[in-house]
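quick one
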Amino acid sequence: MTQDTLLVPASGDRGGGTRWWRDAVIYQVYVRSFADSDGDGVGDLPGVRSRLPYLAGLGVDALWLTPFYVSPMADFGYDVADYRDVDPLFGTLADARDLIADAHAHGLRIIVDVVPNHTSDRHAWFQAALAAAPGSVERARYVFRDGRGPGGAEPPNDWESVFGGPAWTRVPDGQWYLHLFAPEQPDLDWENPEVHAEFADILRFWLDLGVDGFRVDVAHGMAKAPGLPDVGHPNQVEMLGTAVLPYFDQDPVHAIHREWRRLLDSYDGERIAVAEAWAPTPQRLADYTRPDELHQAFNFHYLTAPWEADGMRAVIDESLRTAGAVGAPATWVLSNHDVKRHVTRYGDGETGLRRARAAALLTLALPGSSYVYQGEELGLPEVLDLPEEFQQDPQRLRGEGAGRDGCRVPLPWEGEEPPFGFGAGAAPWLPIPTEWRDLTVAAQDGDPGSMLALYREALRIRREHPALGDGDLYWIASPPGTLVFVREAGGGNGRLACAINMGDTTARVSVRGTPLLASGPVHTDRTASGGDVDLPPDTALWWDAEEG
Ligand code: NOJ
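structure w/ 1-deoxynojirimycin:
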């Protein structure tokens, strides 16, 4: 048996593809907050298009655009009223077409969001369901049920919305409908073949328009346990991603992903899908990326790992092992539009920034594909003191934890005063802190010590170095609190080593080779101790490693 026949057939590679997605760096554009071209205070598609040179220059491979479809914006676009058109707030369908074409001309692929677990309550189907009688075909596209207790006045079961409160809302004729998120986001019933047909058509619509793939929202949610049994526990939001729930990560959901995979594979150009799936274990998460399912899944186990070397190494090993077992690339993500930005999670201020710089080098050296959330390349922190009147996130408004507005503040591009070139006209939909004057793209451009320079250089090396991207790693013994690993290109074509010190004292790491990039000041004592490096706390280093 040759080496090749031992490999799990790479998904999507129908013989001869580039398998671009196995090591792609994918930049998340939160459209609303990226760049505002028409001065209404909200980012839009032409705004993204105007900044394509910046994104191409940054050195990423693809963009993931958050939903820009027609929506009443109860959950900022994750409540879709028309899946085949662009909301006027974000532009037109022609703008989407132009953006896709222009991105391709810049060498950037485009991934769009698809939201299949729920629609908006303003979607034509839900409006028809409300107007129709219980038991009608219109209601059968959603999850309508009679209530429990006298007069059916109690919800059909004890399920809770991710945004807080019961997952059921009653309609005037007495029935209840399910919404795992806001009441404005009714869940579809994926046992209904009409729902399958509709989404296959929606996917084709965007594939025909030229997109390179989809980010699948709540990819773990479409199948519910038969009979919709009670959970039996309150505070279900605390169980998300760690426990088995009758409404998430149910086995039948995989049949939907297989169906979508066949559809994607029927197109040429290696179109992909990435699952936003919260599964209780890395093994269950890897199930979403089996060879006949989706190409990638976000690695939230990595995102939620604390700043601690042993735990971080365990998450990395487990992620590589479980993804590798199904032949999928591991993915790495530090921030997105739903979580507190990692500069702040890692300690905020100077500490948070230092750690975020080191985390960038760690992340971009790991085998597989990486996600970069807009603004992390600028070192943006979470905005923790947004004035009350600006807080708009339904998660917070329904009382479930801190809101997500603080990670969605618009990007600062240039200038000395807010809105820092985000748009000219109305004030941005969320205010940009004055202190971000030093964090604008223009302020960091040309400053070799800036976060932007670090990302540009790391991404340049990642593109050029044969050892980075897809593949494997091996660990090198290193002092407590540190991690050291080596990436090796096939055929002896180069080795890159990465060391990170996550402890609180300086650690001596043996570096045999040529230093390439450091996240902070490091002292190299190359003559006295044969290439040892004193790695300060919260610092990472890449070097071209010698054999042996
Ligand atoms: C996950 C999205 O990332 C989040 O922003 C949204 O609120 C929920 N899915 C519901 O669609």
